[in-house]
Specification:
This is Glyoxalase. InterPro entries: Anthracycline_SecMetBiosynth, Glyas_Bleomycin-R_OHBP_Dase, Glyas_Fos-R_dOase_dom, VOC_core. By secondary structure, the protein is an alpha+beta fold. It has 2 domains: 127 residues, 2,3-Dihydroxybiphenyl 1,2-Dioxygenase, domain 1 (Roll), CATH 3.10.180.10; 114 residues, 2,3-Dihydroxybiphenyl 1,2-Dioxygenase, domain 1, CATH 3.10.180. It is built from 5 helices and 18 strands. The chain has an 8-stranded mixed β-sheet with strand order 4-5-6-3-7-10-9-8. An 8-stranded mixed β-sheet has the order 12-13-14-11-15-18-17-16, with helices on one face. Strands 1-2 form a two-stranded antiparallel sheet. A hairpin with a 5-residue loop joins strand 9 and strand 10. The N terminus is likely disordered.
Length: 269
Amino acid sequence: MSQNKENGAANFIWYELMTSDPAGAASFYGAVVGWTIAAQGEATAGGVDYRMIGRSDGGNAGGVLALDADMLAGGARPIWLGYLHVADVDAAVAAIEADGGSIQMGAMDIPVGRIAMVTDPQGAPFYIMDPVPPPGMEGMESDVFSVTEVQHMRWNELATSDPDAAIAFYKKHFGWGQQGEMPMGDHGAYRFIQRGDVGLGAVMPLLEGYPAPIWSFYIGVDDIDRAAAAVTANGGTVTNEPMEIPGGEYAMNGIDPQGASFGLVGPRK
């Protein structure tokens, strides 16, 4: 989880699945994506059950945080969250709060860096992090996000109640750009966001079926039809069938057996 910087703009450097059933999630995402999720959690501060998501190339796609009874009683729910790199977590927390965001988990140190969980002013949650790179990997960039590769997150999509305000917020605090859009009829525009010259994803209006502003993440798969069939065969729900997207690939949305929403993107074979 080393840092990523380009023209001072932040990148997604980690993704985390919060789930009530890590073993069930391991079985599901193994079948759908091809990931390997550790059978047992690593020893972490506070006894939290945290498991790495392994890719077939030997890298990590992110981590799995097991939601215990206390977390669930406190309102936590299965969800995918992204981590954005910042140089100073405490300063970023203060600036985000001053701009109308909220603090879900105050800044704290963990073995791999300093983190906090926040929301943007519209309520979409995410982590911010100043990572400590593993020994020998100083200066290397996180590769959990890739615009092209399977078993990586390939697209980051924000559904929000106020797209103009959200875009202004992320531009200000994370240095992103916003160029280009795709019309969605009566729903408004699907507006593309960039980190330097890399397309990170898009911001869209909150549509029916979205209870609150949320980041959704699209996982790269080798074959969209195979993956879609695996979703239903393994206890998940397809909420949007595969649809062709610019460039000729296909994207779809689903909910895993524990209730976390996700997206998939890949070719039709």
